[in-house]
């Protein structure tokens, strides 16, 4: 309550209040000065308030006393319970920990004034989780309460912690939280095989590296504490098998280390050990941390392909052996107990030329074609061995055939030599150095000898004894006009057995040379040419001659083409069944221009017709035929054509007669050809041929004269 000494109780003064919470939390009675709280005050919100009060004249509103300041302090009461910052805590502790091992610390807070009474004094206690864990009352540290807690038995624990103020006394407020505690794993369990003996099977044909099966030891631990390493520590198959640890599954995979053979051994025994890789020294007393098991592996029989006695074969043979000679033998056997017979063959893809062959029964390889080291020094064959009863099971083996050299090639000149000798050469002058090559390859290396096939008066050969030789002149001076070229046979032989030799001929030209021996000209005709006529001039003259010849040939061809005109120019017909043909052709023997078969009389005999463009070599006596009925129109037409051809200077001498071989059926004129009358019966009068002009005199002499001779005889 506020009261001014100036207040006489007549209501002339008025009290006003200002500061923290004035008008809202605190109000003042204007007449009496009593201060009241409008609601419940919470110390945790604000511990004290500063206010200012003043008395003023109600009428004049002037202060009657100076403004006074005062503080309202809130006294605390225990109205807040302890609280934890998290509702649920998560913690872990290794299994097998000793009693009193710290797990986690939890801390609660109280909003009450810790300096006023015990309202904020907190005590911790455990409501759930005993007897496994305990909590320190003052600090809230949770510790293990039992020894050797095993994760494999129980892994998760839930602990409820209570925090109570007022020092834990009756009437104090409290709060709780939950702590989930997990026991972490330690390596306190050794690996264990579920079986003392494990049986596995594998075919004998399994290749190296094949997985046979797996073994696995169980470990109650987890993570790296459960990691196991497998190894083979004993047994009769330690050199035949391997074991590999698979990290993701913690299994031991047994694989084949060497090829298996059912006929050699059918059962193997292995002793496999599994051991932890991470062992905690604190728990050695629980060991040993390893275990063993026995693995028995049975090998199953399989029909295996044949096996060669070697992985590869190398045969050496001389190239001069006879056909059918055996160069070597391959051997194979059936590894199965049945021991089936084996058939051998050659892979022809490795012997495309079929130079070799093989005996199918005993594997002997022999030659079927001649060998030549110079063509191929090595032959790489592939021999196939298969069981006769089961040809699909086959095995291949490489066979290398080396062809050994035999001295069967004669040496020859290394290159083609273009040799010349100067006209002014001196005796003993070097004109050429020659060398030789040989396709053979003797062990001691190549050695050649050079000599002349016969004594030569002009040249000689000098062997340098280093597989080369020199060609020297034997006399002074040579003449191109006398002899322009010399042929010098040189004999080249080797020193291998048997000795091979060949004769190579050197062509030596005689040339004009300068004083230094440089060749200038080797043609004898060059001396006869005029001095002022150069090579360019000769080429120009030759081109001119060729051009003139081409012009003459073209002119002759054009002139000949202009003279070629058809024999029959008129197109008028005398009768409807007479057809005019403009193309004279090459006579009856010309079957290329057109088919004259349709113009001939089908009744005529083809093989007895005579050519009309040449004089017959043998004169046949024509047989007489009955005279054909006279036909004036046809005769006039023929006479008209004869006159036209007689007066035509460009008509050929023999092919001037246009032949009309076929008039049609039942013609009263029959055949118009006098030459074909030889095939008819009866006599024929040829005197009218003399009336046809000088072009038919020869024909008249041949036939007309023959008749007269016959008559006279």
The major β-sheet equals: 5 strands, mixed
Query: Which spans have pLDDT < 50 for at least 5 consecutive residues?
Result: 525-532, 567-576, 594-630, 676-682, 706-713
Fill in the CATH topology of one domain.
Answer: Immunoglobulin-like
Strand content: 25-35%
- Number of helices in the DSSP assignment: 3
Distance between the termini: 201 Å
Can you name the CATH architecture of one domain? Sandwich
Task: Give the overall average pLDDT.
Answer: 81
Task: Please tell me what the overall shape is.
Answer: elongated
CATH superfamily of one domain: Cadherins
Number of strands: 37
Structural class: mainly beta
Main CATH class of one domain = Mainly Beta
Helix content: under 10%
